[in-house]
Amino acid sequence: MRSERTVLLVGLGSTAATAFRALEERFTVLALVRPGEDDVVQMAKASGVRVVSDASMAMLSSAIEELQPDAVVVSSYNRVLPAELLRSRPFINVHYAPLPRYRGRATVNWAILNGEAEAAISIHCLTEKLDAGGILMQRFVPIRPRDSVADLYQRLNALQRELLAEAVERRLTGDLGDRQDESKASYCCGRVPSDGMIDWSSSTMMIDRLIRSLGGEFPPAFTYLGTRKIEILRAELVPDQRNYVGRIPGRVVDVDRRMGHADILTGDGVLRLQEIRLPGAASCAAATEITSTRMSMGINVADLAMLLDEGRRGISPADGQVQDRRSDNKIPALAARFSYQKVRQST
Prior knowledge:
Structural class: alpha/beta
Distance between the termini: 69 Å
Number of domains: 3
CATH architecture of the largest domain: 3-Layer(aba) Sandwich
Shape: elongated
Radius of gyration: 25 Å
């Protein structure tokens, strides 16, 4: 049943599409706050909904003051809302985590990294304290052994489509939700692209989790082959792997050109790389770039020390001659030489 109530939706991430669909079926959506020009923005415009492309706090406050919605729904926003604004009307937030656990950022990524058995959607009242308002709706989904972050977002987005309108309706009738147990609260810090660099001395399980926790809308996990950055798009655990008692984490131990995969030693086992990508290029089978068991993944201390030492001494990458130390091209050239040396090991 459609309500006469009005809402304003703030949706910056991949959760916005199902949030918009859920709300427009029940309420009058006065505006969507979302920068850029994508399918979600086009969907809103096609429905006659105003789009506010400036997602700054000043513009959001101005839009709320102008439009006077009955409620504001937040489904992905990267700013802390001021207390004065929160007191002006009901604010409802969609948080993909089992509140009161996993307050904060990158919660679905952290759930995979931490080996959690399940993820969740919690729709709660926004308060001054981070993710601490009363819970209006909450639903759990299992994290299957090979689930990626994209898989979980797909299922959680579907739950948002199912639950969001009812949760907003509850809040508009005066329901403040179920109080959270502060003694069970835990928090997640944000993640940046450099956090995706693989440490090959970690366990096979942790590296596999890192790869599955990234990709899709997030920058993928990555490593280096020489000085070339390689993004890891798909990997798998190796069945019936050999027991390596002589182990150098990151060393390539098998390349199957027919199947396209490459097996890499980790801190405690072997991880099979299936699909990789060089930045700016199309994805390819791992064995396309990882071609020899003489290769090693990752940059080690000895490699970096060599580059820094040769950089300080101004050694030419071509013939070992000392160059002008003022040259801006010295370190990139040395990096190119280093990359060539590492790849040449396979010949």
